[in-house]
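Is this the right way to post structure tokens for a design question? Let me know if I should format differently. Anyway, here goes:
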């Protein structure tokens, strides 16, 4: 749930996430393909290597968002959900 003046919205730079397209993924995919993403950009929950934990990444894979924050903020930020099949992970 979002609270008034939700502390998670104090995140530096969260404004650039407005109107982004988001891909669903999971903790294992992030750990393997984008290990530089270690926590949710909003609540700072740590990414764990787990296939049953859903995460969301913008198309530029610049951050990751946990399932709870995704659902809390998707309307406020105007996110469009993609199908997750076309994620272009950075070269490692
Ligand atoms: Zn979160």
């Amino acid at each position: 749930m979002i609270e008034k003046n939700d502390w998670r919205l104090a995140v530096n730079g969260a404004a650039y996430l407005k109107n982004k397209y988001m891909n669903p993924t999971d903790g294992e995919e992030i750990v393997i393909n984008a290990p530089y993403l270690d926590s949710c950009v909003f609540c700072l929950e740590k990414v764990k290597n787990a296939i049953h934990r859903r995460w969301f990444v913008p198309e530029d894979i610049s951050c990751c968002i946990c399932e709870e924050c995704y659902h809390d903020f998707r309307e406020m930020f105007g996110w469009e959900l993609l199908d997750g099949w076309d994620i272009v992970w950075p070269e490692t």
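Format looks fine. Someone answered above. Worth noting: The chain has a mean pLDDT of 93. Residues 67-77 form the longest helix (11 residues).
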